[in-house]
Amino acid sequence: MTNRTAISLVLYGMVQGVLFGAALLTVLYIPALKANAALFIPLAVLVSVALAIPISWKIAPLLRARHQRRMAHQRQLAEA
Q1: Domain locations in the chain?
Q2: d(CA 69, CA 78)
């Protein structure tokens, strides 16, 4: 398992939770969607599950790059 995959798996739950929360608030605040909440809430779950995968995959290298820059900086300080 690569580092990117491991980081993506850790991020997935958080990203999915945020997306679901935003979608649920949208469904509950818009009266037209609230009237059909039995349809739109499961749809919000499916959409958040599907969108969380590519979003967490895109965020993972950004977090890894920050860590790698920090480690390189610490190595430079140790060598000096």
Answers
A1: 3-79
A2: 14
